[in-house]
């Protein structure tokens, strides 16, 4: 645990300093995000923050490759470097989009290429969790296509929720922390000699980098992560999920409580539920009116929360709570009996649903009361 936390701290320190540098460069060169009708900011803000997050990831992984215990992850294993190479590609694509506003199909090609780099030289999805038995794919082309598709979807999901100050980074910290604790706990209690794990390292580095970036991005934001940061988070989160999914038949998850067969896939989906939900709703909403799924609008979850009466900060905190309930609920399935966890999750979801809708319900009640009184 100490070495993973050391890498997390390293990533946080580097990310904080590098984001400060990115702020200075962006402000001096006036590389500001345009102010559009759907945006929540009203003053010029640079969106080079993804460079700061990537710097934290890069330095932390480089240090990890030479550090006690975690360096075993890199021994005769090119996967960490493949993930890092894919991360470098997607950051370049994201910076180009942030500065030049690439067409959606050009950005999609860049996303697919970055994901392909990870799938070819990094990690691959070889198993899809299923009950009673997981489905295994022995074909390299199929594995590469599945991995590429998953990473592209996850990158776009995180990109879609990056609409309020601190939202995407905070959700990544919360979800990544739950993912980190689960991966670490499973390996810590496994009957194996080498307990180092790439998924645990990736999530530790991701959480640290986002923590270092978050003080710069908290409302009112002094810098945005941009597409480069949001897509980088999605790529790292998806890569960690692929690593965990591939461990289903290793016997590691046979020792956990609850429903071990689907824990490796349950947790990533729990962590990514909000981004994926926002992505799905956006695709349905836009295609229903004949627009491209990639066209921007002001209909995301965070927009809806502010429309019903939440302030900027309150909307972010509410989405943090949703992320915590879902992510740590997924973690609880690995530790406690699933019946208990499921009951608590249902109750927590109902309470959170009521809290989320309260401004709308209270306003509707007031309007109903006014209507009845006027009659």
From TrEMBL:
Family matches, as InterPro entries: Glycosyl_transferase_4, PNAcMuramoyl-5peptid_Trfase_CS
CDD domains for this protein: GT_WecA_like (cd06853)
Gene Ontology biological process terms in this record: cell wall macromolecule biosynthetic process; cell wall organization; lipopolysaccharide biosynthetic process
GO cellular component: plasma membrane
Membrane topology: Multi-pass membrane protein
Keyword Transmembrane helix in record: yes
Residues of the signal peptide: none
Pfam families: Glycos_transf_4
Localization (cell): Cell membrane
Keyword Membrane recorded: yes
UniProt cofactor(s): Mg(2+)
Positions of Mg(2+) binding: 159, 227
Residues passing through the membrane, by range: 45-65, 77-96, 108-130, 142-161, 167-186, 198-218, 230-253, 265-284, 315-333, 340-361
GO molecular function list: metal ion binding; phosphotransferase activity, for other substituted phosphate groups
Keywords attached to this entry: Cell membrane, Magnesium, Membrane, Metal-binding, Transferase, Transmembrane, Transmembrane helix
Protein name: Putative undecaprenyl-phosphate N-acetylglucosaminyl-1-phosphate transferase
Species of the source: Arthrobacter globiformis (strain ATCC 8010 / DSM 20124 / JCM 1332 / NBRC 12137 / NCIMB 8907 / NRRL B-2979 / 168)
Biological classification of the source: Bacteria, Bacillati, Actinomycetota, Actinomycetes, Micrococcales
């Amino acid at each position: 645990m100490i070495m993973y936390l050391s890498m997390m701290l390293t990533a946080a320190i580097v990310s904080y300093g590098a984001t400060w540098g990115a702020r200075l460069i962006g402000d001096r060169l006036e590389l500001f995000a345009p102010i559009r009708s759907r945006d929540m900011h009203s003053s010029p803000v640079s969106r080079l923050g993804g460079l700061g997050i990537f710097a934290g990831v890069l330095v932390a992984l480089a240090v990890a490759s030479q550090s006690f215990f975690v360096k075993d992850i890199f021994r005769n294993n090119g996967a960490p470097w493949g993930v890092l190479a894919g991360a470098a590609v997607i950051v370049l694509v994201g910076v180009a989009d942030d500065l030049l506003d690439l067409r959606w199909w050009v950005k999609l090609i860049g996303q697919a290429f970055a994901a392909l780099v990870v799938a070819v030289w990094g990690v691959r999805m070889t198993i899809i969790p299923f009950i009673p038995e997981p489905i295994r794919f022995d074909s390299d082309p199929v594995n590469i296509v599945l991995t590429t598709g998953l990473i592209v979807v996850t990158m776009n999901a995180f990109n879609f929720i990056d609409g309020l100050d601190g939202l995407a980074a905070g959700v990544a910290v919360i979800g990544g922390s739950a993912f980190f604790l689960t991966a670490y706990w499973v390996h810590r209690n496994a009957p194996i000699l080498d307990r180092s794990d790439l998924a645990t390292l990736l999530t530790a580095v991701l959480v640290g980098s986002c923590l270092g970036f978050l003080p710069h991005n908290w409302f009112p934001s002094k810098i945005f992560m941009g597409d480069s940061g949001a897509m980088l988070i999605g790529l790292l989160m998806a890569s960690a999920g692929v690593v965990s999914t591939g461990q289903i038949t290793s016997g590691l998850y046979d020792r956990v409580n609850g429903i071990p067969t689907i824990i490796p896939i349950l947790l990533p989906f729990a962590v990514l539920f909000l981004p994926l939900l926002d992505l799905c709703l956006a695709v349905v909403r836009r295609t229903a009116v004949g627009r491209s799924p990639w066209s921007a609008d002001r209909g995301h979850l965070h927009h809806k929360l502010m429309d019903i009466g939440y302030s900027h900060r309150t909307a972010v905190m509410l989405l943090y709570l949703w992320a915590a309930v879902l992510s740590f609920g997924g973690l609880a399935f690995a530790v406690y009996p699933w019946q208990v966890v499921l009951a608590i999750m249902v109750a927590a979801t109902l309470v959170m649903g009521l809290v989320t809708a309260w401004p709308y319900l209270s306003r509707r009640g007031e309007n109903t009361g006014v209507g009845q009184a006027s009659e």
